Amino acid sequence: MKKTSTRLADGRELLYYDTRDDRVRDEVDPRPLDPVSTASEIRRDPLLGDAVAIASHRQGRTYHPPADECPLCPSRDGRHSEIPAADYDVVVFENRFPSLAGQSGRCEVVCFTSDHDASFADLTEEQAALVLEAWTDRTAELAELPQVEQVFCFENRGAEIGVTLGHPHGQIYGYPFTTPRTALMLRSLAEHRERTGGRNLFEDVVAKELADGDRVVLDGEHWVAFVPYAAHWPYEVHLHPKRRVPDLRALGDEARTEFPRIYLELLRRFDRIFGPGEPPTPYIAAWHQAPFRGGGAVGRAEFGLHLELFTIRRTSGKLKFLAGSESGMSVFINDVPPEAAAERLREVASE
Known about the structure:
Number of strands: 15
Order of helices and strands: EEEEEEHEEHHEEEHEEEEHH
Oligomer: single chain
């Protein structure tokens, strides 16, 4: 992998990640851009104890532009986009409309490919491996920022999820605090260790799913994907390395090598859940990593890196809405039994 750092016209950082070591990235952004102006603010809820990012400047962000005006495509034929080069492998740049900025954290955009009409599932294993390297490199770089406590790499795919740009891309958030979901996991980790005399909860969950087998979707040499016992979403899969590590930086070479094949197969199965002729399955793919300095009673070393992949589509033409119980009380009601979801995901395996 070759990494090249440059700056856009308004001073934002942009990084090219290339598979070839001889790629030269010296294109200049000629756009007359004004400096980025953000009004990001973190406010804490005194009742729930969680945090809300107030980011009113995002109201003016780019919204469903036509394909020939996509800001994530390469700059070609006199049209200048966020990427000055005429082609690229993987690109990461600071978001022009960040939810978190300055001392409130950092937001970055990850473009998986220059092909506007592709999706992550269309990538080759080599391309997917390069994305993994970019996620890992950004985790390492953001870990050095004093205002960043946790790094969240994720992809939103599909208009139903709320995606405003159709180009295949994801985002990276550098939060200035430990997120509420991670805090809950850390609490469960500590309680499980106390209850079991020192056992690790992530390791026990993975071992139980492998032993039961009913909810296992893919079982590789270094990764296992399963529908969790208490899945919140109609089709939800958790992907864990079999050797527990706290974050992407700690993944071993063998797990890195196997990841592209496992993950691409999982994404391709998601697109086949609802049968032929159906539109692409909307999904969220979310990496859960340990916070850098927090960790509560158990410490970050006890955390288990994993990816959670889920869709809000519950059946053909119908979405799972977060209604009264989910939105009002955070109690999910799932219409699809996890065992049935796992069986369906096994049925649609690649030939």
